[in-house]
């Protein structure tokens, strides 16, 4: 039987996504679209292989996509993103309290990701 001892520690080391709950919550809808294919590949791997150790490469790709996504947000829509996640953070993580901020962020992201 396999165990955690069968995993090489070096295979687990990678850059972490440097965000907390509020930014994750604020960006969730756009992150889902941005990283959909990579996330689906990871979920399918976990489902079909029934062993998370066999999906480490796919897991790394999920983390890398999240890092690229938040870098994209910072480059393109940071001025709209910060007020939105601060509103969520200060408003009990309830979207209804942050509709104006969400609309500004959504509009920016939709414009930034729109195919030319």
Automatic annotation (TrEMBL):
It is found in: Mitochondrion. Belongs to the complex I NDUFA8 subunit family. InterPro entries: NDUFA8 (IPR016680). One of its GO terms (biological process) is mitochondrial electron transport, NADH to ubiquinone. Accessory subunit of the mitochondrial membrane respiratory chain NADH dehydrogenase (Complex I), that is believed not to be involved in catalysis. Complex I functions in the transfer of electrons from NADH to the respiratory chain. The immediate electron acceptor for the enzyme is believed to be ubiquinone. This is NADH dehydrogenase [ubiquinone] 1 alpha subcomplex subunit 8. Its main location: mitochondrion. One of its GO terms (cellular component) is mitochondrion. Keywords: Disulfide bond, Electron transport, Mitochondrion, Repeat, Respiratory chain, Transport. The lineage of its organism: Eukaryota, Metazoa, Porifera, Hexactinellida, Hexasterophora. It comes from Oopsacas minuta. The keyword Mitochondrion applies.
